[in-house]
């Protein structure tokens, strides 16, 4: 299989990490992948806050869990009530990805899409080094609360949208990922697999 496709297909969300901190050089390579993502109009509208402080991560996890417990959404409340629940799965490194505030007049740009492209790049670079990752959306409850990300270094004009957990894998990932949903591709304009005709 094509090397990149193999990395794409073997990457799984990892939720059990070794406590060992990830090598700084490895994290820099992962971030480099994020920085080289495509972005609409080449806006590069992202900011990456790299958190590697165990006590701080545990505190953010506790605060997120408390907010999740108040969620109007039942499955979110249920998750928060699980014994030992930790939104970052106790990963030693977490990157908080922030998006520049959207220009309401641009209309065609999506900074969240640009940030998501950067995240996927980071997941794939990490997987290529056998480093485990988990894309975390549930921190939205924290980011949309009174949480002060600026005190940790998120620049003015940026709002955190996702976190990504990184760590060495505590166990090998499942060899097969979840089955792909069917009927999600439509082809138009080709006959018998040949080139499209005008
Ligand atoms: C936008 C987004 C948000 C996600 N949020 C969470 C999360 O908060 N916690 C978590 O454990 N996994 C989270 N995931 C991981 C998904 O659950 C996972 O990608 C999906 O179940 C498919 O499994 P796979 O990544 O192993 O292929 C998120 C993934 C995406 C793309």
Q: Can you summarize this structure?
A:
By secondary structure, the protein is of the alpha+beta class.
What does this structure look like?
- With 198 residues, the chain is of the alpha+beta class.
- It has a single domain (3-168), classed as NADH Oxidase (3-Layer(aba) Sandwich), CATH 3.40.109.10.
- It contains six helices and four strands; from the N terminus they run ααβααβαβαβ.
- It has helices at 3-10, 24-35, 54-68, 74-80, 111-128, 140-143, and strands at residues 46-51, 93-100, 131-136, 158-168.
- Strands 1-2-4-3 form a four-stranded antiparallel β-sheet.
- It is globular.
- The two termini are 32 Å apart.
- Bound molecules: flavin mononucleotide (FMN).
- Flavin mononucleotide (FMN) binds at residues 12-13, 15, 134-138, 177-178.
């Amino acid at each position: 299989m094509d090397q990149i496709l193999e990395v794409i297909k073997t990457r799984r969300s990892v939720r059990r990490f070794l406590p060992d901190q990830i090598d700084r050089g490895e994290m820099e390579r992962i971030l480099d992948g994020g920085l080289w993502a495509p972005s609409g109009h080449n806006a590069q509208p992202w900011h990456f806050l790299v958190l590697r402080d165990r006590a701080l991560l545990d505190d953010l996890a506790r605060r997120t869990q408390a907010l999740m417990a108040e969620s109007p959404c039942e499955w979110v409340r249920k998750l928060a009530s699980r014994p030992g629940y930790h939104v970052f799965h106790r990963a030693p490194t977490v990157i908080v990805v922030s998006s520049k505030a959207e220009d309401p007049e641009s209309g065609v740009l999506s900074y969240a899409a640009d940030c998501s492209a950067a995240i996927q790049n980071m997941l794939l670079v990490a997987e290529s080094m056998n480093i485990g990752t988990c894309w975390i959306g549930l921190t939205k409850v924290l980011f949309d609360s009174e949480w002060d990300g600026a005190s940790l270094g998120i620049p003015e004009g940026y709002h955190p949208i996702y976190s990504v957990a990184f760590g060495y894998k505590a166990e090998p990932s499942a060899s097969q990922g979840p089955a792909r949903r069917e009927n999600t591709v439509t082809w138009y304009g080709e006959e018998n697999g040949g080139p499209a005709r005008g």
